[in-house]
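User: Hey, quick favor. My workstation is busy. Could you predict this chain's structure for me?
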Amino acid sequence: MNLTSIVSITKKSKRRVGQGHGSGRVKTAGRGMKGQKARNSVPLGFEGGAPPLTKRLPFLRGKGKNKPFKNKPFIINVGLLNDLPKGTVVDVETLAKYKLVDLELAKKDGVKLLGKGSLTCALTVKVAVSRGAVEKIKKAGGDVA
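Assistant: No problem, here it is.
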């Protein structure tokens, strides 16, 4: 047993401020005296009137600027296709029908087959395929369109 595996049994309730004299947080509710922070109007990232960090940094330029926002295709390994009947045409709709992918996400981001696992039945594949997957599909008697 580790300390990290113990289930937490205590739950800290939200602090209720401004609930009367007995609460100990009455008049200013823990915000101190006057000022901008006491009045609940400080935007996130505000730095006291100085240009914020996001404005001080240079623009992101160049080839890879939108890389983190690019959607990656949904990945399926060849070994999962053994559940499909022999001679099936493998496309996005078929994969969604057999609950291997979510149809909306697969249509939006695409699907790619990778070569992990072994394939025993011959299939016709009409989605993006890696080189290793092409070899295994051809070896099983299938076809890549």
